[in-house]
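Incident log, structure service

09:12 report received: a user says their structure output differs between two submissions of the same chain.
09:20 pulled the input from the user's history:
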Amino acid sequence: MSREAEKEVGVSSRTVLSSDDINRAVTRIAHEILEANTAMQKSGSANLVILGIPTRGVWLAERIAEVIARTEPGILVEDLLGRLDITMYRDDLASNPTRPVTETHIPQQGIDDKVVVLVDDVLFSGRTIRAALDALNDFGRPRAVKLAVLVDRGHRDLPIRADFVGKNLPTSREERISVRLSETDNENAVVIEG
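09:34 re-ran on a clean worker, output below:
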């Protein structure tokens, strides 16, 4: 819904993260991933794979991988970065069959015995991440799976918790979180609508 249409129907919205806030959150998440991986494996980027969940999780994963590559000498983004399509693993596929299936791309080294960080924009019920865990099984057996999200809004239906969070935003179930990224939306912002 466009902002003009929101105003006409009386939908209120407020920006909770600006472009600068998103950039800071992504940078912090990337450094937290490196610190956690260093504690686990004695090297910040060793055996690390970053997988974005389409759509906006892919762009956030790319941004995180770019920060890691700038921080760790000799690391290339393409060695870290992939995308994991979860469409066929979703438990709401029968009620929402029009979801487009996109390509999954796993980095050349695969995920066996790697630390895989799944990246998504918003953590809500946990069902998307459950589907991602199921999809991941088709590609190998990671040493560990971690979760990074830009926004954790609560209201979990499943026992899933993010390891790396940009911002915790307690919301009501009626509110909607809209993550807008320049790669798809021509702006960077996180907006609460409702």
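09:41 both user submissions now match this output. Likely a transient worker issue. Closing.
09:42 reviewer note: The chain has one domain: 20-170. Residues 19-41 form the longest helix (23 residues).
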